[in-house]
Design a protein that fits this description.
three-stranded antiparallel beta sheet; globular
């Protein structure tokens, strides 16, 4: 069965008013940035999905970054390893390369499933972003998705609940916008600390997959062992993510309560990677 499923998993709470751009530091130096473009060949997989009313399941996602985002535009740096093949990449001299990886989980609950559509609620979730100079992420066939969590954690956050989401079982499409909070930033690598994030993801199932290799598992464990139901599925996942820097404390005092949702929005209608 062909199905293309657009799904977002993300979190945002950004101070009202303008905020200065953040910088990101790696072996290429320190550069302005506002987010990441994640590989279109990323992977998402469900655990516990049955389509039964009131049942719960999780959607898990992992990918490497293929570019940095600055105010809506993508750019690359020489040392960024964009190919998750478990081998060092980047330019000489050896050892200057690095990678960024994301690992995210959405908790979801089935409201109902009919002949042509299913409705579900998102009950929460988390995401973590890592900076890794060993650049050993491996998503090749049979690799079982290793090397995605062994870097330095630089950004993490939580996802707020959201009710009444749905996907069309005829066309296989879905669009979800979530809000949430960035709750950790390592300012050694990202400065100033981030106040919010927007994450987008396009998920494709079965014959709709393009330019995608199923790694067969995650964290060194095969999907067959991670999953709990015959209905659990593996998806191609394509995403990007944008951040905003936190305003200075003085600005917060003037603004008072200065948070508003930016959301996880599904987009990505062209191939990138």
């Amino acid at each position: 069965m062909k199905m293309k499923m657009l799904a977002v998993a993300a979190a945002v709470a950004m101070a009202a008013g303008s905020a200065s751009a953040s910088t990101i530091t790696n072996t290429d130096g320190t550069n302005d940035f506002s987010g990441f473009d994640w590989a279109q060949g990323g992977t998402a997989y469900t655990v516990g999905f049955t389509g039964v009313t009131s049942s719960t399941f999780t959607m898990n996602y992992f990918a490497v970054a293929t570019a940095f985002v600055l105010n809506g535009f993508n750019y690359t740096l020489p040392g960024l390893d964009t190919v998750p093949n478990g081998l060092p990449g980047g330019p000489p001299p050896t050892g200057t390369a690095y990678e960024y990886t994301i690992v995210a989980t959405l908790n979801e609950s089935v409201v109902s499933c009919g002949l042509t559509s299913c409705t579900f609620d998102v009950t929460g979730g988390t995401f973590d972003i890592y900076y890794d100079t060993s650049n050993d992420a491996n998503a090749t066939a049979g690799s079982n998705g290793t090397g995605f969590t062994d870097g330095t954690l630089i950004i993490s956050g939580t996802v707020n609940p959201l009710s009444g989401q749905s996907f069309d079982t005829t066309t296989g499409t879905n669009s979800t916008t979530l809000t949430g909070l960035v709750n950790f930033t390592d300012t050694t690598y990202v400065n100033p600390a981030l106040a919010g994030t927007t994450f987008t993801s396009t998920l494709q199932i079965g014959q709709a997959q393009t330019s995608y290799t199923n790694p067969g598992g995650f964290g060194g464990t095969a999907f067959s062992s991670l999953q709990t139901s015959p209905a659990d599925l593996v998806f191609q996942a394509d995403g990007n993510q944008s951040f905003s820097a936190a305003p200075e404390p003085a600005s917060l005092a003037l603004l008072g309560i200065g948070l508003f949702a930016m959301g996880w929005t599904v987009r990505r209608t062209r191939n990138r990677g």
